[in-house]
Amino acid sequence: MPEPRPKREFTRSSSMVSMADKDFRRFSEFIHTECGIKLPTSKKTMVEARLQKRLRLLGMATFREYNDYIFSPSGLSEELSHLIDAITTNTTEFFRESKHFDIMRQVVLPHWVAMRGLVHPLRLWSAGCSSGEEPYTLAMVLSEYAEKTPGFRFSITATDISSQVLEKARRAVYPEDRVAGMTYDLKRKYLLRSKDRLKKLVRIVPDLRERVAFSRLNFMEEFSFNDPMDIIFCRNVMIYFDRTTQETLLNKFCRQLRKDGHLFIGHSESLTGMDLPLRQVSPTVYRRT
Predict the structure, then answer these.
(1) Catalytic residue at 50?
(2) What string of DSSP letters covers 190-244?
(3) Which one is catalytic: 123, 160, 211, 230?
(4) Most buried among 14, 215, 262, 273, using CB within 10 Å?
(5) What InterPro entries does this protein's entry cite (predicted)?
(6) Residue in 50, 96, 105, 116 annotated catalytic
(7) Cα(248)–Cα(168) distance, rounded to whole angstroms?
(8) Kindly report the CA angle at 128 between 264 and 154, in degrees rounded to 5?
(9) Architecture of the domain delimited by 8-87
């Protein structure tokens, strides 16, 4: 008896190996316009690999079919968030680039208290917050500072373009190895262990979770806050943008940043040569002039 033929989806998946160069150019231009992310030809294989699951879930046989769907009115409204989730890279960890948090404790927060006093709560924005490790780290740092500075108050706004990572951030559940670099005291104060020890999971305590307000935001759209921010963290996000997009975005940040407020960027990022109302106070830390 002959062996049964494979199901259609398996034969179909074998044909999903390449996107036509013309389709990729159209696709990459769209992503750049919508999200600011640059996708050179060298990223084509990565894009194809990341979109395979979307094609299977939608029952589509080719990238051309997917492209046509994306550029249709219904596809644009229904698929865009899934597309962004698939394309964006979300690599982060607690206390990443730890020098920044030392500067926060030793320089920025004392400066803010000296300039503003304790009448107004400090407003901080984690822009491009991914799955929440950065804003929760900041919440720990600010909570520790508040314990030593009676009357100090703060609020944290955290945004990302990806709905998928924002859901992870709100759940605030992480593998134990993700918090390996935290001190014992911080773990004891701010983390809960899973009742099922085999799962090796931890969760941010409720009091800290309530300190962070998460919402979706696309940097390519116009945005504003009711009140200016005192501190903005946008680290290792702009590396995915071209220089023109970076400078446009940084000017948007400056409009949201209070005079004498601070901007933190990633250690692999640079503002050299850009016309911005910022003065460097430390490597990758700037103050609004």
Answers:
(1) yes
(2) HEEE-SSGGG-EEEE-HHHHTTEEEEE--TTS----SS-EEEEEE-SSGGGS-HH
(3) 160
(4) 262
(5) Bact_Chemotaxis_MeTrfase, Chemotaxis_MeTrfase_CheR, CheR_C, CheR_MeTrfase, CheR_N, CheR_N_sf, SAM-dependent_MTases_sf
(6) 50
(7) 29
(8) 60
(9) Orthogonal Bundle (1.10)
Answer whether 63's CB lies under 8 Å from 15's CB.
Answer: no
Residues 6+ apart with CB under 8 A from 182: 94, 95, 191
- Which residue do the tokens 């593998």 mark? 175
What does the pLDDT profile of the chain (289 residues) look like in tens digits?
444 434 434 333 434 458 888 888 888 888 888 888 888 888 888 888 888 888 888 998 888 888 888 888 877 778 877 887 787 766 678 998 999 999 999 999 999 999 999 999 999 999 999 999 999 999 999 999 999 999 999 999 999 988 888 999 999 999 998 888 899 999 999 999 988 878 889 999 999 999 999 999 999 889 999 999 999 999 988 888 888 999 999 999 999 999 999 999 999 899 999 999 999 999 999 999 9
Nearest to 102 by CA among 228, 236, 283: 283
In CATH, the number for domain 99-288 is 3.40.50.150
Query: Domains of the chain: which residue ranges?
Result: 8-87, 99-288
User: Which of 6-10's residues contact partners 24+ apart within 8 Å by CB, and which partners?
Assistant: 9/56
Spatial distance between the Cα atoms of 16 and 56, rounded to a whole number of angstroms: 9
Stretch (H or E) spanning 265: strand 257-265
